Amino acid sequence: MPKTALVIGSGIAGLATALRLKAKGYHVIVFEKNSYPGGKLHSKKVNGYRFDLGPSLFTMPWLVTELFELHGKRPDTYFEYIKKETICNYFWEDRTRFTVKSDKEDFIEKAAILFGEDAKQIKRYLDDNKKKYELTSSIFLEKSLHKVQTYLSKKTVKALLRIGGMGIQNTMNNTNMQYFQNPKLIQLFNRYATYNGSSPYRTPGIMSMIPHLEMDLGTYFPKGGMHNITKSLYQLALDVGIVFHFNSNVDEILIENDKAIGLRLRTETVFGDMVISNMDVYPTYKKLLPEIKHPRKILNQERSSSALIFYWGIAKTFPELDLHNIMFSEDYKKEFDHIFNKKSLFEDTTVYINVTSKENREDAPEGCENWFVMINAPANHGQDWGKLAAMARKSVIRKINTILNTDIEEYIETEFVLDPIEIEQNTSSYRGALYGAASNSKLAAFLRHPNFSSKTKNLYFCGGSVHPGGGIPLCLLSSKIVNDLVPNA
Length: 489
Fold this sequence. Notes:
Layout: E1 4-8, H1 12-23, E2 27-31, E3 43-46, E4 49-52, H2 62-70, E5 81-83, E6 86-91, E7 97-101, H3 104-115, H4 119-140, H5 154-162, H6 172-179, H7 183-190, H8 211-215, E8 220-222, H9 227-239, E9 243-245, E10 250-255, E11 260-265, E12 269-271, E13 274-277, H10 281-288, H11 296-299, E14 306-314, E15 324-327, H12 332-340, E16 351-354, E17 369-377, H13 385-404, E18 412-418, H14 420-427, H15 444-447, E19 459-461, H16 472-485
Parallel strand pairs: 1-2, 1-13, 2-9, 6-15, 13-19
Antiparallel strand pairs: 3-4, 5-8, 6-7, 10-11, 11-12, 14-17, 14-18, 15-16, 16-17
Helix pairs in contact: 1-9, 1-16, 3-4, 4-5, 6-7
């Protein structure tokens, strides 16, 4: 009889871990507190508009498709996607606009002209980012940083010897300033700190490798929207015999003789050979592991940013927008100072607008668009989010009206809002932080919780709150690390 793996949570990492362990021979049972799989990667339909509720950027699609291949399935029978020719449109209030194409040479040529920078210097920056990623990804993203064997390979030694020259002692902003003079181009590259919920004025310069994921590896759009990633993986999981229990709150992870042996739910106790938590690591310890010693230093780390999102059904089309669009704050440094130091919102926030109806016409009625309008926000520390949302809405509308020369309120016919409190309630993300701990220090990668418990055998962790971090690719990589740590069934 096969061994049993019990998975808490069916976010993208929980689904991927369940699929990997099933392929490894385990009988897998998933317990999900919500009535649906996917965690943040969910969607909602309102008045003819479909909105992806969570992650909106899709990179490294092979991390999804390989899960189908693991089970001998053709990925395209479940899941299809396209590569985007336009990565992102950028807007500033002085009417400056810049469209980043997937062709890197096109980016270098046009960025040099618009921002008055040397094309060779832009190329050197992008090449250096690629080198940083290629030298460190197999260590910092694909393996556990908390196992001795990770540090015994020649590649690891080489990476650690060269890490001092990768900006680890510098901030992302200062690293970008060493390459460029134009504040707009610096701001464009500083934006990538938000991909791990951090501040470009505090996160280490090695994080400047993040643009490589878009500019070299590409951005993609899943046909049918981001929620189709969840739906396709869930269908695969059902097809290969993974068992799901929805509306199932886990009350405790059962520990006996320093070993995880099962789960206690409100109505039953379930035993297994191992437990994998896809729940945020903070509530995992605080709620599910009350009797064991908690790693307080790790759990007390600064939280990443959260988000305030306005979902708008817009009764108009805007040809100047694409799938991904950024409207920048006029004072980026103050914006991040408010988020991380003042735990509030700056009066002039950067606005991200995602419009999936640009690619999937069924997401909005004819002649309309579905706008996912997001601003970076602090984690929830008891702020008055009703007041902050009302203030932010005015700021967002002012910026959109200025940049697009419109009166956007006239076209909003459907609206609902998601704030950090609701994010925490819906996904158990501590304080509503989207990426667990922030990466605002040079040791952040080493301080993230490992994918296993050093005190409790057969207890593992996956998802955005643990190593290697948040976002779809890193969550999927966390499942690969867990899979490598778990013995064969």
